[in-house]
Amino acid sequence: MKPIQVGLLGIGTVGRGTFEVLQRNKEEIRRRAGRSIQIAMVADLDTARAQQVVGDTAQVVADARQVIANPEIDIVIELIGGYGIARQLVMEAIEAGKHVVTANKALLAVHGTEIFAAARRRGVMVAFEAAVAGGIPIIKALREGLTANRIQWIAGIINGTTNFILSEMRDKGLPFDTVLKEAQALGYAEADPTFDIEGVDAAHKATIMSAIAFGIPVQFDKAHVEGITKLEAQDIRYAEQLGYRIKLLGIAKRASAGVELRVHPCLVPAKRLIANVEGAMNAVMVQADAVGTTLYYGKGAGSEPTASAVIADLVDITRLHTADPLNRVPHLAFQPDELSDVAVLPMAQVVTSYYLRLRVADQAGVLAKVTGILADSDISIDAVLQREAGEGENQTDLIILTHDCVESRMDAALAQMQSLPTVLGPITRIRKEELN
Ligand code: HSE
Known about the structure:
The protein is built from 15 helices and 17 strands. It has 436 residues and is of the alpha/beta class. The chain folds into 3 domains: 4-135 and 303-336, Rossmann fold; 138-299, Dihydrodipicolinate Reductase, domain 2; 352-432, Alpha-Beta Plaits (2-Layer Sandwich), CATH 3.30.70. Strands 7, 8, 9, 10, 11, 12, 13, 14, 15, 16 and 17 form an 11-stranded mixed β-sheet that branches. The longest helix has 18 residues, at 105-122. It is elongated. The N and C termini lie far apart (50 Å). It binds L-homoserine (HSE). L-homoserine binds next to helix 8.
């Protein structure tokens, strides 16, 4: 049988990996897919670089629309990124009747509803395993492997750059800015790392997972997004003393009033496996009613790990493209007309526990006042740590861990504590998840 014909838009790091892994493992992949998979066309503005990678095995063009216009091409891989030209090209490819494989989490988290609807109208597949957690097959797991389950929550370390920074801050006791520079020098962080360190990249991925887990539309605009730029090394140290690690988590949780969708730094018990995921690695924990807790770990970025996910999608499409569209796996796991309109909850309605650090005057009655506010707010304390004041010092750090409470109640209590004259600086509040 003639190989399935693939057009690749963008041959940077992941595109090169995709080309090379397809070449290297082509026989095994053919035996699995039932047919060879051939990258027949590559579009890249840097045609010389593209030509160098593919040699004479594929036609290289500068204009992506030539790929989309070619009737021989069955599948278009979009590896351009962003929601500008990539969005137009994906929509045009769908309209041209091409199946699409993309690693573009930003595009799907923001414009997924429109893209999946267009794909459904044209009877084509849009596959996106590489968009979340790189080489970890988490989309496949959520969409197919866990299909029997009612998923309760997902908590993931889904941004390698920030996990690398947090690991280094903990290991070396260094401040955020210093470690960010180191990460950039080592090539872990982009020259403009904003999307990573501000939590946006993780929120794109969490948004996609929330849709698949709960059968809701992708709603990036409703996600709470908080990065790691304000984290201080001293909080990582205090957390450690209390038996916790601080991780940037992407959380999607089913609550009674709706769905929580949030990315923020989070204390996690050090004894949990996920707390020990270090460096640029990713991990996703899923709690579901039948299977219980499962954990998926691996490389969340990089040339061949991401190519591994892209090629898995190519194989899926090769196997399924002749199937009746109604018999394919739905893009978001649930049948498109079965999506739920359950609300994504505002942060004020999220229920979680907290780590608080207060810089306080070291004098009688201060602890009682602070704990009194918490008691009056019906917020239960789990642990208290008071740093011994240094020689001649008249102020100290007070660390409090609380049990679960609704965020609006914690906000009100924080405002009261902050206005105490014996609280000497801005209170640090970091959320905490036990993940049990
Ligand atoms: N920038 C991402 C990360 C990789 O640091 O994990 C691609 O999603």
